[in-house]
Amino acid sequence: MKFSIGDKILLTRTEEEGVVTAILNNDMFEVQVNGVVFPVHKDDIDHPYLKWFTEKKKQPSQNKTAEQLPVEKTKQRPQRFTKGIYLCFFPVFKKDVFEDIVDYLKIYLINETPHDIQIKYETRIQHEPVFQHQGMVFSFSDIYLHNVPFEDMNDVPRFHWQLISKDAGFKTEEGILKIKPQKLFDHISQLLLKNEPSFNYLLLEDFIVKPEEEAKKETFIHPLPKVQRISSKSFSLQELPRYELDLHIEQIIADSKNLSNAEIITLQLQTLERYLSLAILHHQERMIIIHGVGKGKLRNEVHRILKNIPEVKHFKNEWMGNYGFGATEVLFEYS
């Protein structure tokens, strides 16, 4: 029986299949079976086609009116993360003299929830917007957003996000993500150690169902709510911190004629609390609060609030060319 290099063969004693890798002489061949190469005599091998043919014939017959093709199982995309919505960072490396270094980070939003969501996303570096995106992300899918040069990560960019479920029964969620340089270094070190492609941050585990009676939007009507610190989720993506905050009532509300003095100062302090919280959220270093001179009541209330905020390192009410004694300068410090 003739064989050529590359022919499929069958070992007659074990019925294992292999391939001819070399012809040693007229009677001896070299074959590879299950990754092992060894010589065999021509009488110990055969072509496998007869075996293949008889195996097909032995299959049980079924009463078919037409040829039935095997049904392919539906393949579901494997879930890469536990349930939630993630911001994922993929470091892209470039060759250096001694080692590979990170050139830039590719950023994706991954939706591992059953919700189709609308996203509003913005990246800011040193308080300046560098990228914005609005769009839809379907359930159990992802979307590429943009790249961030690795050197820009030293400026601790802020990744602002807002997530809205297409189901109106869920609350809108939003927040700000920032990664300190040391934390970024730790992430990349772990990726290299574990040979993994990316690291991720969980933005939201799941949406919260709205209460039956959704709270009305905040309006300045009587009675005014008590002054309180405001969480990061109370801010919209479009709202920026202010380095100069003017608390004169005409700068806050267009018509204050129907407000009492107590309501005016409450509104002024609410505004102060809001922008102090926003400044701290952005790790702002300095702020000028314009309160005017007058009888000093608003100034004293401003100073009382500043004394109770841990992030306020120092504040002073001294003469400044643009404001006289009508403003207080605040310096922040963060742990």
Please characterize this protein's 3D structure.
There is one protein chain. The protein is α+β, with helices and mostly antiparallel strands and 335 residues long. It is 17% helix and 35% strand.
Keywords:
Ribosomal Protein S8, Chain: A, domain 1, 4-stranded antiparallel β-sheet, 335 residues, Immunoglobulin-like, alpha+beta, 3 domains, SH3 type barrels
Q: Looking across the biggest beta sheet, what order are the strands in?
A: 4-3-2-1-5
**CATH homology superfamily name of the largest domain:** Smr-associated-like
Distance between the termini: 83 Å
Low-confidence stretches: 64-69, 215-234
Give the second-level CATH assignment, the architecture of the largest domain. Sandwich
CATH class of the largest domain: Mainly Beta
- Report the oligomer: single chain
Counting structural domains, the number is 3
Query: What is the residue-averaged pLDDT?
Result: 81
Structural class: alpha+beta
| Strand residues, percent | 25-35%
Helix segment count? 4
- Our Rg estimate from Cα atoms comes to 35 Å
Approximate shape: elongated
Compact summary:
This protein is an alpha+beta fold and 335 residues long. It has four helices and 17 strands. The longest helix has 21 residues, at 261-281.
Secondary-structure blueprint of this entry?
Elements: E1 8-11, E2 17-23, E3 28-33, E4 36-41, E5 45-46, H1 49-58, E6 84-95, E7 100-112, E8 117-125, E9 128-137, E10 141-149, E11 158-165, E12 173-178, H2 181-194, E13 199-204, E14 244-246, H3 261-281, E15 286-290, H4 297-307, E16 312-316, E17 327-332
